[in-house]
User: Fold these one by one.
Assistant:
Number 1:
Amino acid sequence: MSPGDFVPISRVFASEAPGTTVRIRGWVLRTRSSGGILFFLLRDRSGVVQVTGRRDALGDAAFDAAEHVQIEGSVAVEGVVAEDRRALDGREVRASRIDVIDAGEPFPIFTDQTEEFLLDQRHLAIRSQESVAIFRVKAELLRAFREFFDREEVVEMTPPILTGNAAEGGAEAFQFDYFGRPGYLSQTAQLYLEALLFPHERVYALTPSFRAEKSRTPRHLTEFLNLEVELAWCDFADLLIFIERMMVDVLHAVAERRPKELTSLGRPPEELLAIRAPFERIRYSEAIDRLTKLGFPVHFGSDLGTAEERALTLESKNPLFVTHYPRELKAFYMLQSRDDPRAVEAADLLGPEGYGEIIGASCRETDIARIKERITQIGAKVDEYEWYLDLRRHGNIPHAGFGLGVERVVRWVLRREHIRDTTPFPRTPSRHTP
Ligand code: 4AD
Ligand code: MG
């Protein structure tokens, strides 16, 4: 069989009429044989189909070889498309020829294995139908974000990952030896995006961010994808409107394009289509009042952790903006609120159903003295941020931006218990292999 002849398995169900001879190839999802008939479930990138092969049609040698193919072994098949009510989606391929590409060794993954074992076998576990569905949805989500930014004339940038500053304050950065000087893995692309804003006005970057936090929670990774946007001439109201338009647009696109995967993963697409702007906005101080009524021992100045964020959105179907956090809780570059000097013009977007923070957003401080004061307060050195302060010295303008945790969004959209299921090779304090 020559390579050009193969069709994707989805064509067996879509365009190939019963009676047509097709050639397909892929990996064996399930295999069984009885009474001189072999059954494969064969998977390729486009779908899964049942293949049947009879000893009398294939010949003894080919039948015996095919019978020895293990789960996840690879084969090429030539056969006729046939209607079969018992088969998956009502059709199967009746093989006239099966070429074994690699019979494979016994596949180590089967049901009822521990989470730890499956994480050790992650390089193989990502072949599961569940993983396939998760990463197709994630890819669709990224595509929808890029399409949205394209339409909004937000330009994609490529900021560095190796840096000389620990951008968000220093405590949680991975440090390494950069030819005798300290280097850090990027915690955020924000400072670079702020620099790139002056020539481009509307920029975004999709880059990994690294956090050396030992938090073992179901929503923290040490490496995650940070989708960051920076917008010139943008005030706080504009910023929140941009974010909610983006979220509605992207969630609806994914619901329309991946209904099958969403349904199989426990998220009916209608639930995403029901999400509409505007999202509710509450001030941090109001969130504190609500939490106090719910019995949480919080006061103005308390950080909102997993439990608090969960309590605020457990009952809601729409995301929620919490705005105007106390200045001390937030990063040095956030704009001090002109109507409440204790607070910053910042918002966290909390996912519904208790999933918690998915976006961190703020207007950026434009006053150099205030930025220096905050850098000193967090115990960092002002001279390390001189290049950033230059941005306030040459054509300083109001601007705002945000970072969206891609895996956090996928976790909520796909109702995953743990964030590690939303990335193929999760990095957590206890694991950086495979
Ligand atoms: O809230 P964060 O720390 O904000 C920033 O990095 C800003 N500099 C972004 C910006 O304005 N350009 O991170 C942004 C988002 C969070 O809202 C959260 O969704 C996600 O990144 N995130 C994490 N996701 C997984 N694991 C972690 N350890 C995360 N830390 C933050
Ligand atoms: Mg945050």
Note: The chain has two domains: 3-102, 119-422.
Number 2:
Amino acid sequence: MKVMKFGGTSVGSAERIRNVAALVQQAGRQVVVLSAMSGTTNTLVEIADYLYNRNTDGARETIKRLESKYLKVAAELFASEEVRSQAEKGIQDTFTALLGITRELFGPVQERIVLAQGELLSTRLMELYLQEQGVQVLMLPALSFMRLDAQGEPDLPYIKEHLLPLLEQPAQVYLTQGYICRNSHDEVDNLQRGGSDYTASLIGAAIGAEEIQIWTDIDGMHNNDPRVVDHTEAVRHLHFDEAAELAYFGAKILHPTCIQPAKYANIPVRLLNTMKPDAPGTLIDNKPEPGTIKAVAAKDNITAIKIKSSRMLLAHGFLRKVFEIFESYRTPIDMICTSEVGVSVTVDNTRYLTEIVRELKRYGTVTVDLDMCIVCVVGDMDWENIGFESRVLAAMKDIPVRMVGYGGSNFNISLLVRAEDKDRTLQSLSRYLFL
Ligand code: ASP
Ligand code: MG
């Protein structure tokens, strides 16, 4: 069985819901995971903010506005009077309950109940629409099987135990909510913003799905930035670890935590586009493609910091002191390069840059390079393969390179260049690696 997950924009209007229903109907027996309609979770967050700030009027107005949006969708979506009034009743019940919450004392428990309503609404609309279309659909309430353990991590054994029996009931489409779950106190909770992908991955792992499909309305991954490079190609296949490398570069790829359950259960994940449903998309799995370079991606707004100190020569504990400074300002380090007398690191968060630099000066001479850019080459770069390092470096022969990172994983080489050199770096890498 497959798992198909559709994001917020894919179910963002009556027309888009119909479009998803058509895709689902063609797909055979499967579990369908839906996000909230686009914009809904943000509006629910806004409602919660009003309630935390004791602005009940603001909350009520926003609730009413959201309700009328849903009533409009229902009016447009259903052909039959009877189904429409069933949907309207569901919508009204949800929003009456939300109004009820505005009269209670508001805290995190209430907040998470508010946030859960988006996925409950989108799946209810889809359920009714599929029924109207004569599809045999069964709702699997996420709140009855999706669960966090005492550490706040998804509880896979519990999920399996409570989900598998539900799938024994016959249906063509098993429909469920992304994002929402219960915690170990049995309270309504969620898997964090964007968590519907995580739901799909957990369900795929729990049922041993043949494939997890993540449907969005964005165009798939390219092997280089199509805005900068003339000839780019779609990336058809990635190893899970290559996908994880690319996630930092804002590639249209899933967050590594979300795909972890799929990776460990060895379930392939396919990224697909609802606007081009016949395109093959990008397949992510555990199969390496020996010697293949898959993609080049870039990340802007990087700052490099170099600490040079002759005290570092043959000393131990120097790096720890340097890293501790970054840690104490909760600033993640991305690239690192060291020599015997110096270390360079990059950060993308410069909130505490002044403080960090001031403290680093206790240990050495500090240089900061602003407006840098990390360009990363991703593919099968096992160190025993030969040739790819020289191709990457040959591509950089006319471009100043501030740092090179290689050997941290088997799947990447990173180059730090000036922001102004980014485009020609991407173009040159494209020529040397892909043409
Ligand atoms: N609706 C939730 C959000 O907007 C979860 C998701 O869409 O994945 O964050
Ligand atoms: Mg989303």
Note: The chain is about 40% helix and 20% strand.
Number 3:
Amino acid sequence: MSNKTLAILKPDCIRKNLIGKVISHIQEAGFKILAMKMVKLTPDAAKGFYEVHKDRPFFNDLITYMTSGPCVPIVLEKDNAVEEFRKLIGATDPAKAEEGTIRKLYADNIQENIIHGSDSNENAIKEIAYFFSRKELIEINGWNN
Ligand code: UDP
Ligand code: MG
């Protein structure tokens, strides 16, 4: 799965009516959408997803933010997807993100930063499985093959 990554359009992206603009940006960069849905995370689901950050000072605020409205997880495909997608979204803090990146264009601050992207192939596989069942992925892959 080294050609796949997980994106999540976060609650601020949905609140600001930016779903269409952000998805256009992603598609124009050559990523193919393999699966997509809208979900409202429970606190337990958000905590599980961000477990790696559980001891960080921003963890509780991050969970409040991620459960504040619906999210849109998306499975994306492109050669070298993880690295290419991290480049496209830019640094975690939009103030430090490069010009033209999704976070630079649309994010308000280091917490409300519009979008998630997996940070390694190993995590991409885990994160895709966190949101999408095997059945959903097999059906969608069938459509795209
Ligand atoms: N975050 C935050 N404060 C920080 C660092 C991160 O609120 O100082 C939030 C932000 O929404 C970020 C998420 O926690 O996207 C996960 O942090 P990570 O360091 O994994 O950043 P990312 O991989 O999303 O760039
Ligand atoms: Mg991360």
Note: Helices lie at 11-15, 19-28, 43-49, 59-66, 81-89, 102-106, 121-131, 134-144.
